[in-house]
Specification:
5 helices, elongated, mainly alpha, 146 residues
C-alpha cells in the first residue's frame, strides 16, 4: 500500500471514530441491563454502517454521478475508485449527522428518491451522449464517399 493510501486510511478511521463518539454518548440505555448484551460502545455506529451499506439507491446515484463526471471530463481515467470512496464517505458522514439530529429520518424513502434520481440521470446522460454521438456519426457519413 502506498504512503498516501495509508495516510488516507488512517485519517478515515480517525474521522469515523470521532463521528461515532457522539452516537455512543447519546445512545439510549438498555431497558433491562441484566438481559441485555454487553455494549461494546460502537453498536449504534455498526448498525448505522450496516444500514448505510444496504442503501442501493445511493450506491446507484454515486455510480451515475461518477459516469456523468467522466463524460464531462471532471473525473479523470483511473480515478473513479477514489471518487467513489470519497462520495461514499461523504454519504456516510451525512447519514451519521442526520441520524444524530433527526433520529426519526426515514432513510428508506431518501434511498428510494436517490434511486429515482439515478435512473433519471442515466436516461439524461444516455440522451446527451446520443446527441453528441449522432452528430459525430453524421459528420463522418457526410464526408464519406458512397
Amino acid at each position: 500500500m502506498k504512503r498516501p493510501a495509508k495516510v488516507f486510511s488512517i485519517v478515515l478511521v480517525i474521522i469515523l471514530l470521532m463521528l461515532a463518539m457522539p452516537m455512543v454518548a447519546l445512545a439510549a440505555p438498555a431497558s433491562s441491563p441484566s438481559h441485555a448484551a454487553p455494549d461494546v460502545g460502537l453498536g449504534g455506529f455498526t448498525t448505522l454502517v450496516i444500514q448505510y451499506a444496504s442503501l442501493a439507491g445511493f450506491s446507484a446515484l454515486v455510480a451515475v454521478l461518477i459516469n456523468v463526471g467522466k463524460t464531462l471530463h471532471i473525473v479523470a481515467d483511473g480515478t473513479s475508485e477514489k471518487w467513489a470512496a470519497s462520495l461514499n464517505l461523504l454519504g456516510l458522514i451525512v447519514l451519521i449527522i442526520l441520524r444524530l439530529y433527526v433520529p426519526s429520518l426515514a432513510t428508506e424513502q431518501i434511498d428510494g428518491m436517490a434511486g429515482q434520481v439515478a435512473t433519471i440521470l442515466i436516461v439524461v446522460l444516455g440522451f446527451v451522449v446520443q446527441l453528441y454521438t449522432s452528430s459525430d456519426v453524421h459528420a463522418v457519413l457526410a464526408n464519406a464517399e458512397i
